[in-house]
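Re: that chain you flagged

S.,

Sorry for the slow reply, it's been a week of failed gels. I finally had a moment to sit down with the sequence you sent. For the record, here it is as I used it:
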Amino acid sequence: MAQQLNLLLSEPTPTWPRWTTWGIIAAIWTFPGLAALSYYYLNQTVSAQPVSWAYAFVSTLPNWYLWAVMTPVILWLARRYRIVRSNWKTMLMVIHLPAMICMMLVHSLANLLLFCVTDMPGHDTLSTGLYRVHFTTRVHANLLTYWTVVGVYYAYDYYRKLRTREQQAARLEIRLAEANLRALKMQLHPHFLFNTLNSIAALVRKEENRKAVKMLVQLCDFLRLALENKGVQEIPLKQELDFLERYLTIEKIRFQERLRAHIEAEPAVLEAYVPNMILQPLVENAIHHGIAPHAEAGRIEIRARLDGGMLLMQVRDDGPGLDKSKNSRQDGVGLTNIRQRLEILYGDDNDFSLCKAESGGLLASITIPFSTKPVMTINTAI
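Prediction finished late last night. Pasting the structure tokens below so you have them in one place:
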């Protein structure tokens, strides 16, 4: 979802200098001019009459270039005096019809003057009769031309406004996603903090003060790193694993030899971007359910690798596995948080599952698109 929204917002809106705009207008009006020129040539050829190229050019291309000159005026009128359902009669009768008639009169006069200046046959002198001929012979084409320009402008303006509304809606959706991600991340921090403080309190009650102080020092270092990245939703996997090692250092103070951990990641995936603190809840869940309830030592394995173009991250413990009679392991704060964050960032392009590992224990797997750039960059401080 975020990828499509970012793609939509990243598409640039074209802006051209004025001379480019005039060039585009001239080029557009050249096409009907050339069409009229080719029609004149074919008509003369079929009728076996000699082709007068001077007459052909004067009677075709300038006719359309005159409309090119008047196009900015038509666009200004269409924009300034917009025809809508509530005022269409007024706009037509008071503004557009008079403006159209004036332009048609000017167009016919300019066309007649051009014929006289270039000394075309039958235009040796200006006369009312000639002017009437020039006006009446082009009245239907000129009427259609004026409203075609107005219609094209309204179609483009409608598309532009629709595009703007889509971008505004996309921005609002991204802001909502950012707010949801920040809320979820804020939920994760106190959840981890309270659990760690409870562990420190347990050490104090056992009068293991040295361990408690050591754990407090590691907790301060861990929180400092967490706060440095408080406004970042995605970080490189290498940084996430370093973050995870600091967390495991805190837990090893508490469990000593009872906790063994192994982290393994393919070099190719270390620069891939992943959600910040996405693995910590999985490791915490593995420790809480797979290590803490048992007196014997336990092992946790964290692995990351490419899997068919996707990034696969797994956390496995050798505890009792998934107890289907209890939903607490699947519906805890940390795991619910993971599901929601993955949904916001990747939509349907992700997979999160908990299952029994082949060698015993629980296997938690996260599959997300492999990317060396963040899907959504959020720099707003929480």
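What I noticed first: The longest strand covers residues 298-307.

Talk soon,
D.
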